[in-house]
Write a structure and sequence with these properties.
By secondary structure, this protein is mainly α. It folds into 3 domains: about 190 residues, no CATH class; about 170 residues, no CATH class; about 100 residues, no CATH class. It contains 23 helices and 6 strands. It has a 4-stranded antiparallel beta sheet with strand order 2-1-3-4. Strands 5-6 form a two-stranded antiparallel ribbon. A hairpin with a 5-residue loop joins strand 3 and strand 4. It starts with 9 loop residues before the first strand and ends in a 30-residue tail after the last helix.
Length: about 475
């Protein structure tokens, strides 16, 4: 959110009793030092701040958002469930109060979900003031004694209040209204918080039949920061419900909308990897691959996708794996058209998508045996995994930041190579004992005793085998990419 005038500290102050229409004809600006705590402040894009809403009192915020204490005849707002064709109404003071209530309620839920006792109100955030303690800012649902706070129970309590008040209906109306900038983002933020509880996500899926498709359209067409990222945050939670309850009709929406292709097209969009947007792209990609990992954990679900989508996704995951071992330390990012965002994220200690890309790759190759065979027999792929194991091993600096990468990598190697080798040996032993008499096997063992002493290197990624020229020792390619 930005303020009217180029300088962030310059705001437009309104008298408590001034209406929006009156203010439009007589604009005046003052600095933040001149603003009184009882002033109504106008910001850009139709956002206002009211002194009585500078609070985390969830009951007051819900009352304001749902127009509970306003007579229907006076509740003139574009977001009024009881009014016909309300979405065609212009923005009113009541509507701007709903906006601020939505923002602060979302901030409260976000803090509670993270086990925190403070966050910024809309007003304080715009004026550059520090975060406020929830209790001191009007939130009255914490226990009065000094006992430890069960944040999840408190969070559930507020979410239940939201459901009972029908506030979700109002928020959904605000989400669909494109007129005011950032309203969609804040609506999605609140929906992200409430759908953390699976039962609420299930209710929303059933009650708003078009919401899933609208989210997918927003991811495809929306603004990166204001719509794509918050839409993914909601979608992740809804996909958990879809997968856990095996809601195939909703899952089919993802396929019909070509969700995988939408994401890969966005991943390949060069503009998102510029200096200005790289941080947001890293977050977007991480959320997107987390969502794909959720919907591709089950083999039956993987098989529902087209071969083209599966191959595109596998290829993109491999691209991320290769990017992770490239040495860009000496590169000047300001001179690059496309930044290696994996290396950039690690240099700036930002969590990235590599762990999820490994797990998604594994999910697909488990189901598509021919793809798994291709990569298992590919020498360059084995060298790539060796290089990654060396970089992300247990004593490496990256593990302390994000251990999921090392765990995912170990799971990939164990499944694709270690288990495969064990299974191959078992099958060979079974066939040998079945096809040949016991004494014949013993005769062959004695004749080939010299060959039996040669060993294959214990690293399943390595194809080196002992012979007269090669001794059994540490093989350098198992430790670095060469």
């Amino acid at each position: 959110m930005w303020c009217i005038a180029a300088n962030r500290s310059v705001l437009t102050a309104l008298d408590q009793n001034t209406t929006i229409a009156e203010h439009d004809t007589s604009n005046c600006t003052v600095t933040t030092n001149d603003i009184d705590s009882m002033d109504i402040i106008q910001f850009a894009d139709g956002w206002y701040s009211y002194p009585d809403l500078n609070t985390f009192d969830s009951d007051l915020l819900l009352t304001t958002l749902t127009l509970r204490n306003i007579k229907p005849s006076k509740a003139i707002s574009p977001w009024n469930m009881k009014q016909k064709n309300s979405t065609g109404l212009p923005l009113t003071e009541i509507g701007t109060r709903q906006l601020e209530a939505l923002f602060n309620l979302s901030q409260l839920l976000f803090g509670l979900a993270r086990g925190e006792q403070s966050n910024y109100t809309f007003r304080d955030l715009q004026l550059g003031k520090p975060a406020r303690q929830f209790r001191e800012a009007g939130f009255n649902k914490f226990p009065n004694n000094n006992r430890s706070i069960d944040f999840f129970s408190i969070f559930q309590l507020v979410v239940n209040d939201i459901l009972k008040s029908d506030a979700i209906d109002i928020v959904y109306m605000m989400y669909k209204d494109p007129r005011i900038r950032c309203v969609k983002q804040k609506s999605l933020d609140l929906l992200t918080n409430v759908t953390t509880i699976n039962e609420v996500g299930y209710i929303i899926l059933n009650h708003y039949s078009q919401f899933l498709i609208q989210l997918l359209q927003g991811i495809r067409d929306g603004h990166l920061i204001e719509e794509k990222i918050p839409s993914l945050s909601v979608l992740i939670r809804l996909c958990k419900v879809i997968v856990e309850k095996n809601l195939l009709s909703y899952y089919q929406h993802l396929i019909d909308m070509q969700f995988i292709d939408i994401l890969i097209d966005l991943f390949e969009y060069q503009q998102y990897k510029s200096n200005d947007l790289i941080i947001y792209f890293i977050k977007f990609e991480s959320l997107a691959l987390q969502c794909l990992y959720i919907i591709l954990q089950c083999a039956e679900h993987v098989d529902m996708w087209s071969e083209k989508a599966q191959i595109r996704l596998v290829n993109y995951c491999c691209t991320l794996l290769y990017k992770s071992i490239l040495d860009n330390d000496k590169d000047d990012y300001s001179q690059q058209i496309e930044i290696n965002h994996i290396i950039y994220a690690e240099q700036h200690e930002i969590i990235h998508s590599l762990g999820y890309s490994i797990l998604i790759f594994l999910s697909i190759v488990r189901c598509r045996k021919e793809i798994g065979r291709f990569y298992r027999e590919n020498e360059h792929f084995r060298e790539l995994l060796n290089a990654m194991k060396y970089k992300y091993h247990s004593r490496n600096e990256y593990l302390s930041r994000n251990s999921s990468i090392s765990c995912a990598l170990n799971q990939l190697v164990n499944t694709m190579f270690d288990r495969y080798e064990r299974k191959k040996r078992r099958n060979y032993h079974h066939l040998s004992t079945k096809d040949y008499p016991r004494h014949h096997i013993q005769d062959e063992d004695e004749e080939n005793d010299e060959n039996r002493q040669y060993q294959k290197y214990s690293n399943s990624l390595c194809q080196m085998i002992e012979n007269n020229q090669i001794k059994f020792e540490d093989y350098p390619n198992c430790h670095k990419f060469g």
